[in-house]
């Protein structure tokens, strides 16, 4: 029932948003109510999975340990992001940047985007998961071109073409994975279980080829280097709440697809093949992001490169395997919370300064004192400073790596340190310094601060205390890796 | 009507392959659209053959949907785009003609190299056609990379999809009818969105040449 609800709620919310005439308040109410209900459904399912191991709806939909973690992360970040969207769009409407039609378009697509992600997580079919992830591209393309400027159009086109190409390659890889199941004349939906059952009899060459295509394809959506090029462009042009979802949730959903198919290739050729590939792409992402962060002039692009770095850290963790995989999955949760927080804080900065250029942002601490503190809080969390959980997960991943892959680990450590230094340089410039006299001090609205505080509190709590149910889910989910 | 003779399958796959080669070489947008239509027709034929072989109405519906979306609707959208913006000629390529041909030859040779030999396990009878489908995939990716026109890039994506569907048919990896309909619907939505974007790009930049889009480089 909860699976049905979590799919029906965003669909109904999107349809209702379509039917709303002239009342922005109704759109806001639908968004907040829908995301709250989705969160409730996700919590119910997560508890059920931690108790029974699986939560299913017929043969076509099911949530396992891994799915539960990704789903809960999406719902927990989705709720504050929906609340923030209300305040953010109202502020842009007050400034005369957008009108009712744009807000309506935003919420219709926002709910469809959420629906596509929940669909991809809960389906038992790899092809349906592909359709769900492809649907996220289609739902969000118009959100990237939301402001209808030439640069936004360019970013949206780049996003559409690169992601479509990547996803077609992932589709080809996924089809190859299906051949052992299909060779028996299988005409029903092929579940993940059936794929795993066919993994042992899969030809090693085809398994390797399939995984390479899947990793490149879904890796494009994750933003792994060298398929990352759409990410900074799209992030810099898209409304901030949607970017927060890109970074906090979409990345995880695409990663989920890679992780599910990794188990199949591991059965055919052993773990080493997929682990080496993940390590390669992971390290490349960390290094490229580290050097790119130094040169950034736009803080939204800066955060995009930070997401690329973290995607790399997760890939590295799963590449190391064992305890590294546990830390990588926990890292996924921490990153979603911290990065959503950072993007929403960046949204407040943008609303106040009307610029995304770092050189135009000075004195945030005096102009937006609460947002400033939260931004620094997010920066410390995302760069892995104590006492935040990301410190523990990065430390754990590197500790696992240093035993078997000392050079990779050393290079990754260097990259992570460079990210901290580069990030710090920009943050100091933005947070302190002399503010422009024309900018009025004070937070814009409680709607724009409360969701960030909500995320900060959750991040702080889970940094010190991971609930036993979540701990159990992560442990169980990462045992095969 | 059931097409299961390896030679006929190879011939039909050759048509898809050649259509993509000519997409690379064509200067006229209308001819590019015609080529896409032809290759889509072959894909629809493949699916119709599968439906007859299985005596399945559901698969026949899939073949009809593919025909409607790829042979009728998509070309109509693209022609409308050309008419509205008077885009008779497609824009240039990053590599010149001879170099493009060299790359096409190299990609095709790579598809027939020993590297892809293990794919024989998927279909011994249609092995040659299967490798040609791989070549069609690779050169479709090259269309997206090499052509500067937004319309050509769209056709490149759709050709890649056609090449993958033909590969799946030849390798016996077709999905059940429900899933295939889902994929066709996905493609239809993609075509609509991409066409709208192409129109918006023309309005913003006065051209469908993606190399004129340089706003992001300023940042």
Largest sheet of chain A: 2 strands, antiparallel
Task: Report the span from N to C terminus of chain A.
Answer: 30 Å
Helical segment count of chain A: 20
Q: Assign the structural class of chain A, choosing from mainly alpha, mainly beta, alpha/beta, alpha+beta, or little secondary structure.
A: mainly alpha
Q: Can you tell me the overall shape of chain B?
A: globular
- Any low-confidence stretches of chain A, pLDDT <50, length ≥5? none
**Tally of individual domains of chain B:** 1
Overall residue-averaged pLDDT value of chain A: 92
The amount of beta strand of chain B, in percent, is under 5%
- Which structural class best describes the helix and strand composition of chain B? mainly alpha
Most extensive interface: pair and counts? A-B, 45 and 41 residues
Roughly what is the average pLDDT of chain B, rounded to an integer? 89
Query: What's the helix-strand series of chain A?
Result: HHEEHHHHHHHHHHHHHHHHHH
Q: What string gives the helices and strands of chain B in order?
A: HHHHHHH
Task: Spell out the key features of this protein.
heterodimer, A: 481 residues, mainly alpha, 20 helices, 2 strands, 1% strand, globular, B: 219 residues
Structure, described:
The complex is a heterodimer of chains A (481) and B (219). The longest helix of chain A has 31 residues. In chain A, strand 1 and strand 2 form a beta hairpin. Chain A contains 20 helices and two strands. In chain A, 79% of the residues lie in helices and 1% in strands. The termini of chain B are far apart. Chain B is an all-alpha fold and 219 residues long. In chain B, helix 1 runs antiparallel to helix 2 and helix 2 packs antiparallel against helix 3. The chains are: A mainly alpha (481), B mainly alpha (219). The interface between A and B is large, with 45 and 41 residues.
In brief, what are we looking at here?
The complex is a heterodimer of chains A (481) and B (219). In chain A, 79% of the residues lie in helices and 1% in strands.
């Amino acid at each position: 029932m909860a699976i049905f609800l979590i799919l029906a709620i965003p669909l109904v919310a999107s349809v209702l948003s379509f039917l709303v005439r002239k009342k922005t308040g109704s759109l806001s109410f639908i968004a907040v109510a829908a995301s709250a209900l989705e969160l409730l459904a996700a919590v119910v399912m997560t508890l059920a999975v931690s108790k029974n191991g699986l939560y299913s709806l017929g043969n076509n939909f099911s949530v396992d340990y891994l799915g539960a973690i990704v789903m809960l992360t999406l719902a927990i970040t989705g709720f504050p992001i929906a609340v923030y969207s209300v305040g953010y769009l109202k502020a842009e409407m007050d400034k005369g940047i957008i009108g009712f039609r744009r807000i309506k378009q935003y919420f219709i697509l926002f709910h469809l985007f959420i629906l596509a992600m929940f669909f991809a997580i809960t389906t038992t079919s790899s092809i349906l998961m592909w359709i769900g992830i492809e649907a996220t591209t289609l739902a969000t393309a118009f959100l990237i071109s939301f402001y209808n400027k030439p640069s936004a159009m360019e970013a949206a086109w780049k996003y559409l073409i690169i992601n479509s190409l990547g996803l077609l390659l992932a589709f080809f890889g996924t089809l190859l994975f299906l051949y052992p199941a299909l060779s028996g004349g299988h005409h029903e939906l092929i579940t993940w279980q059936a794929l795993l059952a066919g993994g042992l009899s899969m030809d090693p060459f085809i398994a390797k080829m399939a995984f390479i295509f899947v990793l490149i394809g879904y890796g494009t959506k994750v933003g792994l280097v060298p398929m990352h090029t759409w990410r900074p462009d799209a992030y810099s042009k898209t409304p901030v709440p949607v970017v927060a979802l890109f970074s906090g949730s979409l990345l995880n959903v695409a990663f989920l697809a890679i992780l599910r198919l990794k188990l199949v290739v591991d059965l055919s050729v052993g773990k080493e093949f997929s682990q080496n590939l993940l390590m390669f792409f992971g390290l490349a992402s960390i290094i490229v992001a580290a050097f790119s962060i130094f040169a950034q002039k736009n803080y939204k692009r800066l955060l995009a490169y930070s997401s690329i770095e973290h995607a790399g850290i997760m890939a590295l963790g799963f590449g190391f395997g064992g305890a590294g995989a546990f830390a990588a999955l926990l890292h996924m949760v921490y990153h979603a919370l911290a990065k959503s927080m950072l993007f929403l804080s960046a949204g407040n900065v943008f609303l106040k300064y009307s610029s995304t250029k770092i050189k135009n942002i000075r004195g945030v601490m005096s102009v937006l004192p609460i947002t400033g503190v939260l931004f620094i809080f997010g920066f410390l969390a995302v760069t892995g400073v104590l006492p935040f959980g990301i410190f523990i997960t990065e430390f754990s991943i590197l500790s696992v790596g240093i035993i078997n892959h000392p050079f990779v680990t050393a290079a990754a450590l260097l990259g992570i340190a460079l990210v901290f230094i580069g990030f710090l340089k920009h943050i100091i410039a933005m947070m302190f310094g002399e503010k422009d006299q024309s900018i009025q001090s004070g937070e814009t609205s409680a709607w724009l601060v409360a969701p960030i505080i909500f995320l900060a509190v959750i991040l702080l709590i889970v940094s010190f205390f991971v609930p036993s149910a979540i701990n159990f889910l992560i442990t169980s989910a990462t045992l095969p890796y | 009507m059931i097409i299961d003779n390896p030679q006929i399958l190879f011939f039909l796959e050759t048509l898809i392959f050649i259509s993509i080669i000519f997409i690379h070489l064509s200067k006229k947008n209308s001819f590019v659209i015609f080529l896409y239509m032809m290759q889509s027709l072959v894909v629809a034929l493949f699916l119709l053959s599968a439906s007859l072989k299985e005596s399945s109405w559901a698969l026949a519906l899939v073949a009809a949907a593919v025909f409607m979306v790829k042979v009728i609707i998509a070309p109509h959208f693209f022609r409308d785009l050309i008419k509205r913006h008077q885009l008779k000629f497609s824009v240039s390529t990053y590599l010149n003609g001879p170099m493009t041909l060299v790359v096409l030859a190299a990609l095709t040779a790579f598809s027939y190299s020993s590297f892809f030999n293990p794919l024989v396990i998927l279909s011994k009878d249609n092995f040659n056609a299967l490798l040609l489908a791989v070549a069609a995939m690779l050169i479709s990716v090259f269309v997206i990379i090499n052509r500067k026109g937004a319309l050509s890039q769209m056709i490149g994506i759709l050709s890649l999809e056609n090449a993958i569907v033909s590969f799946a048919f030849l390798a016996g990896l077709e999905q059940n009818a429900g899933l295939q309909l889902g994929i066709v619907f996905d493609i239809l939505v993609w075509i609509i969105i991409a066409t709208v974007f192409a129109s918006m790009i023309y309005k913003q930049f006065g051209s469908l040449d993606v190399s004129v889009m340089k706003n992001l480089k300023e940042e």
